[in-house]
Write a structure and sequence with these properties.
5 strands, Cytidine Deaminase, domain 2, elongated, DNA polymerase, domain 1
């Protein structure tokens, strides 16, 4: 998916080049390279050939600034659509395989169940992790999420949900109902296996 260049990125690049955001060179730069992915990969040759007034020295400065920006940009998740709890397990299990403490992770999804972001919400002890709904939904709202999937591990290797696991899930579901962001599932990861609270029938607020 093409991404238009955010204002903050434009401003940072202009400042690093000692240019005003609305200067001729900056306007031409963003006109020739209107998408972030194009601009980030621009070469000195492309810059000197396509932007009037940009010589070798200025092109070198722009490429250096873009290189720094690229190194600071967080890696993007691949376009990953969640169709089942097994998809969640395959995505998250590798990073939790040897974890000695509980990790509570949220997957933030768009309306097509494609992951927008994956965030570690809380880090706990060997057998407990305190999760605050406000932090979960602050992150969800920040990313304009349509829905979320919760994931956490049991370092003991046994993924059976505890009463506390079910309780926090229902608290999150209640908050999500008020806010308008669905909690689709809570997947608990153990030793080479997982349990989905949705598949277990534990995602109903009426139970």
């Amino acid at each position: 998916m093409s991404e238009q260049i955010p204002y903050e990125f434009r401003r940072l690049l202009a400042d690093s080049l000692c240019e005003k955001p609305g200067s001729y060179i900056m306007e031409q730069l963003f006109s020739v390279f209107p998408r972030t992915e194009d601009l980030i990969e621009a070469t000195e040759q492309e810059l000197t050939a396509s932007i009037k007034g940009v010589g070798n020295i200025k092109a070198r400065q722009i490429v250096a600034a873009l290189s720094l920006a690229r190194s600071l940009m967080p890696p993007k998740l691949p376009s990953y659509k969640i169709c089942s709890p097994a998809d969640v397990y395959r995505l998250v299990e590798p990073e939790l395989r040897y974890a000695k403490r509980e990790h509570f992770i949220c997957l933030f999804l768009n309306t097509k169940n494609v992951i927008i972001a994956k965030e570690l919400i809380a880090l706990g002890s060997l057998n407990a992790c305190i999760v605050h709904p406000r932090e979960v939904f602050r992150q969800a709202i920040k990313r304009c999420s349509a829905s979320i999937i919760c994931v956490h591990n049991h370092p003991s290797g046994n993924p059976e949900p505890s009463p506390e696991d079910v309780e926090i899930t229902k608290r999150l579901m209640s908050a999500g109902t008020i806010i308008g962001i669905d909690v689709l599932d809570h997947v608990i990861i153990g030793d080479q296996r997982y349990i989905s609270l949705t598949e277990r029938g534990l995602m109903s607020l009426t139970h």
